[in-house]
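<derive_structure_tokens>
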Amino acid sequence: MTVVEGVPRSRSRGICRCLLVTPAIRMERFLGGAADAADIHLLDLEDSVPPEAKHDARQAVATLDPLDVPAGYSLRVNPIRSPEGLRDLHMVLDARTAPDMIVLPKVESPYDVELVDDVLAGAGIDTVLWAILETAAGLESAMAVARSRPRLVALTFGAADFCADTGTAMEWEPLLMARSRVALAARSAGIEAVDGPTFDLDDAAALESDARRAAALGYTGKVAVHPGQVDVINEVFTPSTADVHRADRIVGEFRRTGSSIITMDGRMLGPPFLRQAESTLARAGRSR
């Protein structure tokens, strides 16, 4: 597929096609990741860092030089209700380089977001937030979490932890309802919906299939757990040349006619089609 050049890079406040996760114990990989095409580069202090290494990983994050971090530097802390999560948040307040975004795992209520928002606001830090919904309780609160605070810019569905929590098979069909619920909550609140990772690192076809299915549900991006996954994800979530051309025609025809209903290529198109076309152009870094 041909993709459109010039898609704007995210600063964690806008479009995210791909978020690339790097363990905070692999700092050399993270600092060398500026050449990767991911929109967001995420350092992880949670699952990928064993308990005995969390202190040292936290200290390494606290001393990051702002000149060294890649664009879109973001940080996943430990669950905010845990002692490790509170230590992570305290570290962020004094860190040499504040992340553009903090990712909150295992969010189960709006309170989780509100707590961190209040702490950051009190410290005068404008870092935005991103919530992962990955438990039964989190899914139950999806809509309330999505609408909790303006600082929240995205939701992610965490399939692995959700399956561990609920006993659901980690396959597409059994997870369809949960995945759809997260996408619906995010889009209804006007924020990004980013699908969780595909863990099979050697199956590019499965990665592409997962990404396309997620896009069909309304997801706007996907998490990568290996640099080798970034290009496939970017391709899926970047509007193709054909998509942009059609969207451009639709917007142009609506403007030319001044009508709320148009006919193009034998199809009747109304306001929803115009909004979808405008969204396609925005995701391609275009405006009209």
About this structure: The chain has a mean pLDDT of 87.
